[in-house]
Amino acid sequence: MKIEELERAVRELQDIEEIKKVHARYAYHVDSQEWDRVVELFTEDAVADWGGSRGRFQGKEEIARFFKENVPRSATMLRHMMIQPLIEVEGDRAKARLYLFSMGTYRLPQGDTAVWTHGEYRNELVRQGGQWKIARLNFEATFRTPYHDGWVKTPKAF
Amino acid sequence: MTKEELEGAVRVLLDIEEIKRLHARYTFAVDEMDWDTVIDLFTEDAVGDWAYGEMGSRGKYNGKKEIARFFKELVPKEARMFRHMVMQPDIEVEGDEARARWYMFGFGTYVLPQGDVPAWTHGRYDNDLAKIDGEWKFKHLRYRFTFQTPYHEGWVESPSIMPTVFREEKG
User: Fold this and answer.
1) Measured over all CA atoms, what is the biggest interatomic distance in chain B, rounded to whole angstroms?
2) Which of A47, A153, B106, B139 is 20 to 30 A from A134 via CA?
3) How far apart are CA B171 and CA B168, in angstroms?
4) Is residue B52's pLDDT more than 90?
5) B114: Cβ–Cβ under 8 A, 6 or more apart, which residues?
6) Nearest Cα to A123, choosing from A5, A42, A30?
7) Strand runs (DSSP E) across chain A, as ranges?
8) B33 in helix, strand or coil?
9) CB nearest A152 (choices: B17, B83, B109)
């Protein structure tokens, strides 16, 4: 390996590791309701699409509103587990595909309800000022099912 | 560290990352039922051993052609939907060969004689990989079930379901 190749390999490994950390931090901060820290993970003009009933939000301000107003209204507890990151880096841009498996307590019309969620993120990240940020978040739920129902009976509780 | 040692260390880290990505691509493609992508991840002479454990055997398939039959003809009849999540990789690289151990936790809606049944699945992979023309591929996939249990039952009451297609396959 030439020194340039060695450098490139180390840089790629560092980038992949950094992008894994962005997603881990996203999960920890969301679950701890540290909204300012969550919002800092996005670019100014980021677009976040949580699909279906959750909706699409454009720009950091709208994304902040989603986290600070919508999320606390709909859930009292959340735990996000980010699984099997598939990260591909191209210079200052990257794509990240991950599964989410999570649990939460949601305020549904029938009362506080324990819910399992599974879904997939297909995100795009950019490097800005040496830091990886989320430019596009795309989430698609496989199911959001009440603990006692399962995804055949109730695939999407909301 | 000499330059050679540094190179060796970086190469192993890259290989480990590539092997993690191979397993991620595999599970995403299986879940999308994108069979050509899945089959491309195996070597020509690969062995797919889904009968590695005592429970829930789905059979053992020798060579890419048999593995293709397993995925294209049998697996789509097994379930309406499934999602595989692989975690906690333990990867050992030795030159152009490697071993990878993972836990799998997943779920699906399986086609059983009594109807469509949602089930949780857990198991373990003990895979052998080979690097061919610079790409890591599955050379020997071994999967062992811990349980595959209906959503409302649990692994004590019902540790292993058997989808209709594999009951028929076994005769």
Assistant:
1) 64
2) B106
3) 5
4) no
5) none
6) A42
7) 42-49, 56-58, 75-90, 93-108, 111-128, 131-146
8) coil
9) B109
Quick check: A118 and B25 CB within 8 A? no
Tokens 């003809």 sit on residue? B73
pLDDT one-digit tens code per residue, A101-133: 999 999 999 999 999 999 999 999 999 999 999
Tokens 């590695």 belong to residue = B52
Helices (H) and strands (E) counted in chain B, each on its own, are: 5, 6
Over residues B25-47, the pLDDT tens digits come to 999 999 999 999 999 999 999 99
B104 inside 8 A of chain A by CB? no
The ipTM of this complex is: 0.95
Rounded mean pLDDT, B162-168:
88
- For A72, the token pair is 């606390």
Residue A153 corresponds to which tokens in the numbers above? Answer: 């009976």
User: In what side-by-side order are the strands of the sheet with B79-94?
Assistant: B60-62, B42-49, B135-150, B115-132, B97-112, B79-94
In the structure encoding, which two tokens stand for residue A2, read together?
Answer: 């030439």
Question: How high is the pLDDT of residue A103?
Answer: 98
Among B10, B81, B85, select the one facing A10 at the smallest CB separation. B10
Give the model confidence (pLDDT) of B72-111 as tens digits.
999 999 999 999 999 999 999 999 999 999 999 999 999 9
Asked if B14 and A9 come within 8 Å (Cβ–Cβ), the reply is yes
Q: What is the model's pTM?
A: 0.96
Q: CA-to-CA distance for A139 and B53, rounded, in angstroms?
A: 35
